[in-house]
Design goal:
heterotrimer, A alpha/beta (324), B alpha/beta (367), C alpha+beta (553), A: 324 residues, Rossmann fold, 7-stranded mixed beta sheet, 5-stranded mixed beta sheet, 12 helices, 14 strands, B: 367 residues, 2 domains, 6-stranded parallel beta sheet, two-stranded antiparallel sheet
């Protein structure tokens, strides 16, 4: 078993998939000889050649559009969008086309593709290298949205996404690319989509999170434990389709819920969790369901550390619901 | 490919006969770009700023194009065009504030470095990271000029990679139909991060794409500052006469990496780099100036050192300026601050106050 | 001149570590600003790292070939000039060591903080208790700004309490430094609302003693505003919907209160702003009666069972068992019954009634009731009889006020009618039975039963009984010894009607006929009344119900 960073685990997953299935292709901007701006695709062109791992012109809509076409015709494309902030020219292709193809064709045409993209803040990337846009895509039926937070999950979930017959948007928390290391088994394995992961067991307060917020919440949980509050930290992993039962059970376990995400608050994913809990288990709630989120502003550069939820803000929310 | 200055500095064709002041201003600007660049790279590598984008090798395209513009024209720049701002009077200090993202930054520290935005002395439109989005916006701004029957024009600048974007297609298409007073400047430095031009398009050139959109396309030697200026000037004159847009391809080479996060030695052949080193745009212009008896080596040293000092001073000012105030996260989202944002701002101030953070000021959200 | 520890910076987005390839200087070397000091390899690039300032290299803290994390010190430098400003690891620039330059940035922190003037203490002005025992006030309007000079007694701010809106004056001459509360914000008495740079001596202020209630306020924020991320929390606690729409309670508390038939209004909330928590309901149920405090004086809470504490029963786990958690309503009933049975010494008297004529009457009454849409059972007749009996024997329509050591006899008869529902045993109450007709009682009873089974009974319909009736007769059993609905004095059990051959006295002598019989049992709290009372009460009921025409008297 190797200890890999999250980005290495992604690379490992891509290699594994490409070794086992000749229909798997990887393409995007700078993914070929350069190996990607974060080195996610390092070594792929060398091992698999230019027909299987290659650079495209600077055109996100082209990348996704072409991927859709490939997917409908027997290939399994893994498209990289260099930063999630740049995905919007491709929004039409993703939302209007990839997400709706199976439905509108009565299942005659399907779209088994994966779009991988680094998302989220924490690297001083300012407005356009830090966005967390998962909410736009979770609002799109037909699409799957997956976000790993550990190297083990990154490889397992990516391999599962590649196997998945539906279009998957695989959002990689760039802040964790190199700052998180973990044991990753060699060879093929998958982590099921639509299953949450309990990152820390507890009976006091349930904290729902994903991506780069998972380590933040775990740190806050340690601090909470020192104050006698045991947090149950849940890494959602797949936002769409969500493990709703798992979410409801985890919430009922403590009756006190905090949801944490970097993305802005209004119409953020935290709202969906709150609504699900309010509809299904409000009578188990001992306190309001609280969200700790980025602000409803664009993502600032210099003041990034004020913007992103940190362990202090999470701890404040945990204490608030605990003492309610 | 159009050029004016031969490698040895002699003029090919018609000398534009610019006044010595103007020539030296062009020259100084190119050196200022180089100095600013050099210092910023070092600032980034020593951890004093977070990011920078090298401009080495493309000084002539930026400054040449800028030299053709009037101060009443608008520039829709790429992030590798700050030489245009310098040419028209933006100071290194103002730019350094943006590089530091401090409280004096006109964008209030919100953007990554090099994403400049200036309204004076010239309209240097706010740079965003997505590629090509500004190209079609430039056409809109030009439309307003047409609407008001002004004689102004717009320069939209982008790289070879930018021609693959949706904005390029929409922009040139609209401009062709509307006969917009826009000059589209494609700075073909032959690399889009690691993607070589040959993988970017199958067209014989970028200039040739102009035909598809119903406008003239001109290919110019991007390392020849006077040639770039000439061609841009002609295109601007067409635009001001109501004859519509032009696409200019300035053929040059990116001598540095894409950014401080990029290592070009991994994909740029050494041989190619060495070839283009010989075509250094600053050196070529020096040879031209020398032939005009306006230049000797000591002048370069003098001016370059002045530029370095200028940038050094800018660094001192910028680094001693405090960071932007906490409320700048919450202002300018809208014209006025709505309730839900005000609430979040107050919460941020409360938290900062409880943490004992000086950013909290008095603890009350001041907007 | 400064000594700086140079930390490996994040050279490219998100780099976590770098390998020292080659030192380009040694300890003791003089370096210029921007001079390359070391070659570092990251997985994106190999770069030269320059010195941030001119100076002399102190120590090299990493060796060639070593991989170091971003942020660790790799060399030290003794600068010849001022220390350079480095980006703080993980975000933005720290505020520079020097004071802000004369060219004040256009977007400096807003006027909230005035610069400290030369000399003079800073007084933190706390919101005083403006009217006897005021706990908090709402800032209506600031009459001054930060930086403004004020005189002693000059009005500084308008504050609204629930007694009055007042102007709060400055206690001394000085310059307002910071305003620490916003217009519209409610702040507790004792929290700092502004600071004042004093021009002269500090005034003597009354020491403030915080009231015993809520959480201690954070320095600059009212409870409304803290903790930071939950900015809307306070506003939302007021907007709860439900039966008790004006009583804030968390959802889990409402559920439990409903299950236990506890009225929220009777429960003190220990949450913020008096919100009732689940723990409060649990505490209330454990400590108090199953029904809440009646209008009539009732016994104060305690009276623990007088049994000696024994070791709890433990059942060894084995196959074939089904284990059901002993909690919720079941547990509450258990606690209530234990309390009743072990506080009130019960005795039970029983009487057998010939209800043949009552049945005949009821059939006729049922028909009459049907004409006006009222369902008539036996219960209204029994209730009427009970009311009559309690008028004659008021010692059974009573409670023992243990605190006052008084037996309280009630002037009216409120009958608790025990009902078995999905939620368990619920005892809604029909009030003032003595003044209602049988038909009225029938209608009220039917309505109450429907609503009780639907879980829609109002809380005030669950409290205030003076006597209770338990009718298990329709389920089964000819006799029982009911447990009193504590703290009533007594309870009447109504049992099944059975047909039996009976002896009827006629002028022609005794005859055998088929008759219908029903037992009534009455359990009484022997602290309050005696066996004879219970017996006589039942005799009275028998007289009325065997000849039901007498109920009209």
């Amino acid at each position: 078993m190797a200890t890999l960073t999250l980005i290495q685990a992604v690379n490992d997953a891509l290699k594994t998939a490409m070794r086992t299935d000749p229909n798997v292709l990887v393409f995007g901007e700078d993914v070929g000889p350069k190996g990607g701006v974060f080195l996610a695709t390092d070594g792929l062109t060398k091992e698999f050649g230019e027909k299987r791992c290659f650079d495209t012109p600077l055109s996100e809509d082209g990348i996704v559009g072409a991927a859709i076409g490939m997917a409908t015709n027997g290939l399994k494309p893994i498209a990289e969008i260099q930063f999630q902030d740049f995905i919007f020219p491709a929004f039409d292709q993703i939302v209007s086309e990839a997400a709706k193809l199976r439905y509108r064709s009565g299942g005659q045409y399907t779209c088994p593709l994966v779009i991988r993209t680094p998302y989220g803040g924490g690297i001083r990337g300012g407005l356009y290298h830090s966005q967390s846009g998962e909410a736009y895509f979770c609002h799109t039926p037909g699409l799957k949205v997956v976000i790993p937070s550990t190297p083990y999950d990154a490889k397992g979930l990516l391999l599962a996404s590649i196997d998945d017959p539906d279009p998957v948007l695989f959002l990689e928390p760039k802040a964790l690319y190199r700052s998180v290391k973990g044991e990753v088994p060699e060879g093929r394995y998958t982590v099921d989509l639509s299953t949450l992961r309990t990152a820390r067991e507890g009976t006091g307060v349930t904290v729902f999170c994903y991506g780069a917020m998972v380590p933040v919440c775990l740190r806050a949980a340690e601090q909470a434990a020192a104050k006698g509050i045991e947090c149950h930290v849940v890494d959602l992993r797949t936002l769409l389709p969500l493990d709703e039962e798992g979410v409801i059970d985890a919430a009922k376990r403590t009756g006190r819920v905090v949801v944490v995400h970097e993305a802005p608050r209004f119409c953020g994913f935290g709202g969906e969790i709150s609504a699900i809990l309010a509809e299904n288990c409000i009578e188990w709630m001992e306190a309001p369901i609280v969200r700790v989120t980025g602000f409803d502003t664009p993502f600032p550069n210099t003041l990034e550390h004020h913007y992103m939820p940190d362990d202090r803000r999470v701890l404040d929310a945990v204490e608030h619901v605990w003492n309610y | 490919m159009f050029s004016l200055i031969k490698p040895d500095g002699a003029v090919k064709g018609k000398d534009p006969k610019l006044a010595p002041d103007e020539l030296l201003h062009i020259y100084r600007t190119m050196l200022r770009v180089r100095a600013f660049d050099e210092v910023c790279m070092k600032l980034q590598r020593s951890g004093r700023i977070g990011f920078s984008i090298p401009n080495r090798g493309v000084e002539a395209t930026q400054v040449g194009a800028a030299a053709a513009l009037r101060k009443t024209d608008w520039i829709f720049p790429s992030y590798r065009d700050f030489g245009m701002a310098l040419y028209h009077g933006v100071t290194p200090t103002e730019m350094m504030h943006t590089m530091y993202g401090n409280g004096a930054d006109c964008a209030k520290g919100r953007q990554m470095p090099v994403h400049f935005t200036f309204t004076d002395p010239i309209k240097f439109f706010s740079i965003s990271s997505p590629i090509g989005t500004h190209i079609v916006q430039a056409v809109g701004a030009a439309y307003a000029m047409q609407y008001r029957k002004e004689k102004h024009a717009v320069l939209a600048s982008f790289g070879d990679g930018g021609t693959s974007s949706l904005g390029f297609h929409s922009g040139l298409n609209f401009a062709g139909v509307w006969k917009s007073p826009v000059v589209f400047l494609c700075q073909n430095n032959q690399w889009a991060i690691s993607c070589p031009s040959s993988s970017q398009t199958a067209s014989a050139s970028y200039a040739i794409k102009a035909q598809a959109y119903g406008m003239p396309g001109m290919l110019v030697d991007g390392n020849d500052v006077l040639a770039v200026r000439q061609v841009t000037l002609e295109a601007l004159e067409r635009a001001r006469k109501g004859l519509g847009p032009t696409l200019i391809e300035a053929y040059t080479f990116r001598m540095g990496g894409h950014s401080t996060s990029d290592d070009p030695t991994k994909y740029v052949p050494k041989k190619l780099l060495a070839e283009w080193e010989k075509k250094d745009p600053v050196v070529r212009f020096e040879r031209y100036l020398a032939k005009k008896k306006l230049w000797k080596q000591p002048l370069r040293d003098k001016i370059y050192n002045e530029c370095l000092d200028e940038v050094g001073d800018a660094v001192k000012v910028a680094e001693s300026t405090p960071p932007p105030a906490l409320e700048t996260i919450f202002s300018d989202v809208y014209a006025t601050v709505p309730t839900h944002i005000r609430r979040q701002g107050q919460a941020a101030f409360d938290l900062a106050a409880r943490k004992g953070d000086a950013a909290a000021g008095g603890g009350a959200f001041p907007l | 001149m400064a000594k700086i520890d140079f930390k490996l910076p994040d050279i490219g987005e998100g780099i976590a570590e770098g390998e020292i390839v080659k030192w380009l200087v040694k300890a003791g070397d003089t370096v210029k600003e921007h001079q390359a000091v070391v070659e570092v390899m990251t997985d994106k690039a190999t770069v030269e790292v320059p010195s941030p300032a001119a100076g002399v290299i102190g120590e090299l803290r990493a060796t060639e070939g070593q991989t170091v994390p971003v942020g660790s010190v790799i060399f030290t430098l003794e600068t010849t000039g001022a220390a350079p400003v480095m980006m703080s690891h993980g975000g933005g620039h720290a505020a520079p060591a020097k004071a802000a330059p004369a060219a004040a940035p256009a977007h400096a922190p807003a006027a909230a903080a005035a610069p400290a003037a030369a000399g003079g203490k800073v007084l933190e002005f706390k919101l005083p208790d403006i009217g006897e025992g005021i706990a908090e006030g709402e800032i209506v309007k600031w009459l001054v700004k930060a930086g403004e000079s004020v005189k002693e007694h000059q009005a500084v701010v308008e504050v609204m309490t629930d007694k009055a809106t007042v102007e709060v004056p400055s206690p001394a001459n000085g310059v307002v430094a910071e305003l620490r509360a916003q217009a519209g914000q409610t702040v507790p008495v004792g929290s700092v609302i502004f600071t004042l740079q004093l021009a002269g001596a500090a005034p003597v202020m009354i020491a403030h003693h915080a009231p015993a209630a809520a959480a201690a306020p954070a320095k600059a924020a009212a409870p409304v505003a803290a903790p930071a991320p939950v900015a809307v929390a306070a506003a939302s606690t007021a907007h709860v919907s439900g039966l008790d729409s004006k009583i804030p309670a968390v959802p889990s508390a409402r559920r439990l209160a409903r299950e236990l038939g506890i009225e929220l209004g009777a429960v003190a909330g220990s949450g913020r702003h008096g919100v009732i928590r689940r723990a409060d309901i649990e505490a209330y149920a454990a400590a108090g009666a199953p029904k809440s405090a009646a209008p009539a004086p009732s016994s104060a809470a305690q009276a623990a069972p007088a049994r000696p504490a024994a070791a709890p029963v433990s059942v060894a786990a084995a196959g074939g068992q089904t284990r059901i958690p002993f909690r919720g309503v079941r547990k509450k009933i258990s606690e209530a019954m234990v309390r009743s049975k072990y506080t009130a010494p019960h005795f039970t008297v029983v009487e057998e009634l010939d209800v043949t004529d009552l049945i005949t009457l009821r059939e006729k009454a049922k028909a009459m009731g049907a004409e006006v849409g009222i369902k008539v059972t036996f219960m209204p007749f029994i209730m009427k009889a009970v009311a009559s009996g309690l008028a004659k024997y008021p010692q059974l329509n009573a409670q023992l006020d243990e605190a006052a050591q008084e037996i309280v006899r009630f002037g009216n008869v409120n009958l608790g009618i025990a009902m078995d529902t999905d939620q368990g045993l619920i005892v809604p109450i029909v009030k003032n039975v003595e003044s209602k007709s049988v038909l009225q009682l029938a209608a009220e009873l039917a309505d109450l039963a429907d609503r009780t089974r639907a879980g829609k009974v109002k809380p005030d319909e669950l409290k205030g009984s003076t006597f209770s009736i338990s009718n298990a007769g329709n389920i089964g059993g000819t006799l029982a010894t009911p447990i009193i609905n504590f703290p009533d004095a007594a309870i009447l059990g109504v049992h099944r009607i059975v047909k039996r051959p009976g002896v009827v006295e006629t002028p022609q002598g005794d005859k055998i006929e088929v008759r219908q019989y029903m037992n009534l049992s009455c359990s009484v709290d022997h602290r309050i009344a005696d066996g004879a009372d219970g017996a006589r009460f039942l005799v009275h009921l028998k007289k009325l119900l065997e000849t039901p025409g007498l109920l009209a008297l």
